[in-house]
Structures are given as structure tokens and as C-alpha cells.
Amino acid sequence: MDRLNSILLRWWFLLCTQIAFGTVAYHFNFFHHLYREDTTRIGFFILGVLILTSLWLGKKIYSLKFKWAGPDDAIDKLSSGWFIAESCLVLGLIGTVTGFILMLGTAFTELDVTNITSVQNALVKMSLGMSTALYTTLVGLISSLVIKIQLVTIERQIENGQQS
Fold it and tell me: How far is CA 143 from the centre of its chain?
């Protein structure tokens, strides 16, 4: 039981670290920029997946305290987390491709190179698509990394407890 309390405490530390980074991101208006620049809103979906997955991991660890069947069973119960982490990467890449489609597909439809206003409008549309691509990639990579850090930390703690 003491080992599970240690695992739960490490998960809690990682969750508090996430909350601290989220607070810093909020302070620097990251979420406002994400809302303004990511027209697909995939970035917020990925952040939602991150939050729900972190809470799910905590619930799994907490439930292990009452149904501990051994380290192998505990690691098997967390295996879905690896799929979710990879899904965050894929969602980020989907946002990247969507952003490039927005950038290249809509920017040149009404372009008249002899008209300065037309060129300026094309550049605005291109920048919106590019910002969508970059923000979703960033959020997908960071979310995947955070979930993987939690999973590795938890699984290492379980394995180390098995050896002692």
C-alpha cells in the first residue's frame, strides 16, 4: 500500500506541475492567442484530452489502492494511456495539415497581384492558416509529452516497487 501512495503522490505532483504551467500560460494569454489563431479549435480539443487523461490516470492509480492484483495488472490498466498520448500527436498533425490547407487553399482564390489590397488579404489568410498549423502542432506535441511523462513515471514506480 505504501508503494501505491508513493505513486499517487508522484502523479499528484505532476498534475500540480501541469496546473502551474497552465496558470503561467493563462497569465501570458496563451489560451486567448490559441482561440484567436486556431480556427479549427483542435488545440482546445487536445488540451481537453490532456486534462481528461491526467484525471483518468489519477483515478486508475487511486483505484489500484483497492484492487491491487500485482504490477503487471497495474501496467496493463494504464496501456490505453499510450494510445491516447499518440492520439494527441496525431490530432496535432491533423491540425497542421488543416492549417496548411487553409493557408494554401483559400489564400490564392481571389488573388490579384496587381492590387495591393488583394495581396494583403491573401497574406492575412495565409498567416491564419499557418498559425493554425503551428498552434495545433505545439499543443499536440506538448500534450503528448506530458501524458507520456506521467505514464513513464507511474510505470517506473510500479516496476521499482516490484523489484524491492
Answer: 2
Give the Cα separation of 164 and 153 in Å (integer).
Answer: 17
**pLDDT tens track for 32-71:** 999 998 989 999 999 999 999 999 999 888 887 666 556 5
pTM of the model: 0.84
Nearby residues of 146 by Cβ (< 8 Å), 6 or more positions away: 14, 18, 50, 54
